[in-house]
Design a protein that fits this description.
The protein is mostly helical. It is built from 17 helices and no strands. Helix 4 (about 60-85) runs parallel beside helix 7 and helix 11 packs antiparallel against helix 14.
């Protein structure tokens, strides 16, 4: 017998392991999360200056690829969500890693804006939709009580990817130009992300005689189901239709609409903004990596804090840090100004990326997480698509990034208020009786 969502190892072997197999799932999510950084806007930020200089493209034209890729993810995510619920994260993540690796390598062949759009939009669609669904879907299937902690660890790996990918690209570009940079990015995505996910990912603990968060007692699936009952009874169960009828769904969506234009808009344009403020390309690249480093630190911190301070306070704090970082970007004149702004901005991003998936899973449960999250991702990736395009348009219109940064600061501060009022919904009445 083989588990759903993966050909290896066998169900009996997994059930008899001396440790909980969810930790293997977490490791797979971490490798996929590291690979996810290939088409991130922080990575693309390093390529903005050399590619626009060589081809004469405007910043808005280049930013449009991020936006179009987001629109494609917005269309695909509601369709992929139910697939995740039925088939598990393995299929979704394997396709995302494989496609992203090949398309980012193909970007090294770019000779026109059309070719750039074709390859990058596919990679960006995977970043915004399938990667997000697969990583958090896997974790939320295997963990409930430890959800905040494992989410922070997975985000730590994603931030490590965001920190490493710009440096990998920069080092490759020093030897062979921007084309070598894209080849290095694509090869890294494939080497790190594909094999562990393909070989080891399993759909959910119940498929192999386990329960969320821990090993099941000796015995088979009946004992596992009995042990799972207390966990399941504490966890809400919403269908997608039920979730969309709650104020919490729309408040979390509105929060998403506020924070992700800031996250994506500044991430893409931070390197060119820093260069325009008189900092060198090497300094700009290290500042981009500093923002990613602090995002990683923040992910771990928010993972540990969220259960103590509550989801709503954590959402508010993350958005406040995001707004403060955007405001500090306005005042960059020296390298240490850039490091300070990037550090604060990174703390906010790490908080948002950690707490928001926890909020969706805690508020609506894991049974239909893919379907619910798929709809929510439509809002998220649309917001992420709007941010870089807005920033590029305002820069082209005004000659610098001052206006766009001021707008992003205001939006992030509004998001803090929204996060504070986004309370958990009341579970459907049948949850208390059914226990599922």
């Amino acid at each position: 017998m083989t588990p759903a969502g993966g050909p290896w190892p066998a169900t009996a072997l997994i059930a008899r392991l001396p440790f909980y197999y969810g930790w293997v799932i977490l490791a797979c999510a971490c490798t996929a999360g590291f690979a996810r950084g290939g088409p991130a806007v922080a990575t693309l930020s390093v390529f903005v200056e050399p590619m626009t200089s060589e081809f004469g493209w405007s910043r808005a034209a280049l930013s449009g690829a991020v936006s179009l890729g987001g629109v494609m993810a917005a269309l695909a995510s509601p369709l992929l969500g139910p697939v995740l619920d039925r088939r598990g994260a393995r299929l979704v993540l394997c396709m995302a890693v494989l496609t992203t690796g090949l398309t980012t390598m193909a970007l090294s062949l770019t000779q026109s804006l059309v070719a750039f759009y074709v390859f990058f939009c596919i990679a960006r669609m995977n970043f915004a939709g399938p990667f997000d669904l697969g990583i958090y879907g896997a974790l939320n299937s295997w963990f409930v009580a430890r959800r905040a902690f494992v989410t922070s660890i997975a985000n730590l790996a994603q931030m490590a990817g965001l920190m490493s990918m710009p440096l990998i690209a920069h080092l490759a570009m020093r030897e062979g130009g921007w084309r070598a940079g894209w080849l290095a990015i694509g090869a890294t995505v494939l080497l790190v992300g594909f094999v562990p996910t393909w070989a080891l990912m399993v759909r959910r603990p119940e498929d192999v005689g386990l329960v969320p968060d821990r090993r099941a007692p000796e015995g088979a699936l009946a004992a596992a189901a009995s042990a799972a009952a207390p966990v399941a009874s504490r966890e809400p169960t919403f269908t997608r239709a039920e979730a969309m009828r709650t104020p919490a769904f729309w408040l979390l969506s509105l929060y998403t609409l506020a924070v992700f234009p800031v996250q994506a808009g500044i991430s893409l344009h931070q390197a060119p903004h820093l260069i325009e403020r008189g900092l060198g390309p090497a300094v700009a690249a290290t500042i981009v990596s500093t923002f990613s480093l602090f995002s990683a630190v923040s992910s771990l911190g928010f993972g540990l804090l969220t259960r103590r301070i509550g989801v709503r306070i954590a959402l508010m704090l993350a958005s406040l840090l995001l707004g403060l970082g955007a405001g500090l970007m306005l005042m960059v004149a020296l390298p240490w100004h850039g490091y300070a702004a990037a550090s604060c901005f990174g703390l906010g991003i790490g908080g948002v990326l950690t707490v928001l998936p926890i909020a969706w899973a805690d508020y609506f449960g894991r049974t239909s997480f893919g379907a619910i999250r798929g709809v929510a991702l439509t809002v998220q990736v649309t917001a992420q698509a709007a941010g870089p395009l807005l920033s590029g348009l305002l820069r082209d219109a005004t000659g610098d990034y001052t206006l766009s940064l001021a707008v992003f600061t205001a939006i992030a501060l509004a998001g803090a208020l929204i996060g504070l009022i986004a309370r958990a919904p009341t579970p459907p009445r049948r949850t208390a009786t059914a226990g599922t």
